[in-house]
Design a protein that fits this description.
The chain has 171 residues and is an alpha+beta fold. It is built from 4 helices and 9 strands. The protein has a 9-stranded antiparallel sheet.
């Protein structure tokens, strides 16, 4: 240990072994440092993800009047003839993931590589190079919600190699 450095530094060296110098003070500082780090990190870890700028906020409906609403951490499904139900791990056979992001046009078209007819239909809807998306994985299936504009949304449903698309409008 460099004594010149330790004399100028008011805090004890946290690497000092027990039995050397001020070990009790060093342990206290190490514990205090750990508590400060935990206090700084834990609140950030507990904050739920937010929708980017509320782009997906509101209620969206299909032509058949089935509705969905986006929350920061899930999608709430309202089939019309039943109570609204938020998607969660218990309703998805234990496998549930949800998040917001952006995807390129090419990445979105690549979600259905074996269904050229759906790729062509989707390609006519996607004019920009990238889009805001909300992605949901539930069990073996996945859905990518693509925000086309302020009023229109297209969802790409996938279950293994089979895909489908559905258009929704903001209510």
């Amino acid at each position: 240990m460099n004594l010149a450095v330790s004399r100028r530094c008011p805090l004890p060296n946290p690497l000092v072994q027990a039995g050397e110098g001020r070990a009790g003070v060093t342990r206290w500082h190490a514990i205090r440092l750990l508590l400060l780090v935990l206090a700084a990190v834990l609140p950030a870890a507990c904050i739920a993800p937010e929708m980017p700028d509320g782009e997906f906020a509101g209620t969206w409906a299909t032509a058949e009047r089935h509705q969905i609403a986006f929350r920061a951490d899930t999608v709430v499904v309202n089939p019309g003839d039943a109570a609204p139900s938020p998607m969660a791990a218990d309703s998805c056979a234990g496998t549930f993931r949800f998040g917001y992001g952006r995807k390129s046009r090419e990445a979105l078209l690549g979600l259905m590589p074996h269904q050229r007819d759906l790729q062509t239909r989707l390609a006519t809807m996607l004019a920009r190079p990238d889009y805001p998306v909300a992605e949901l994985t539930c069990g073996d299936g996945a859905s990518t919600y693509v925000l086309l504009d302020d009023r229109d949304l297209v969802v790409i449903h996938r279950d293994r190699d089979i895909a489908g698309i559905e258009r929704l409008s903001r209510l």
